[in-house]
Amino acid sequence: MIERVAELSAALEARRAAASTVGLVPTLGALHDGHASLIERAAAECDLACVSIFVNPLQFTSAAEAAAYPSGLDADVVLAEKAGATVVFAPTLEEMYPQPPAVGVQIAGQLGATLEGVSRPGHLDGVATVVAKLFAMAGRCRAYFGEKDYQQLLVVRRLVADLSFPVTVVACPTVRSIDGVAESSRNRQLSSAERGAAPVLCRALRAGAAAVLAGGSEPGEVAGLMADIVAAEPLVELDYAVVVDAASLVVPERLVGELRLLVAARVGGTRLIDNVGVRVA
Question: Which CATH architecture is the domain 185-273 placed in?
Answer without folding.
Answer: 2-Layer Sandwich (3.30)
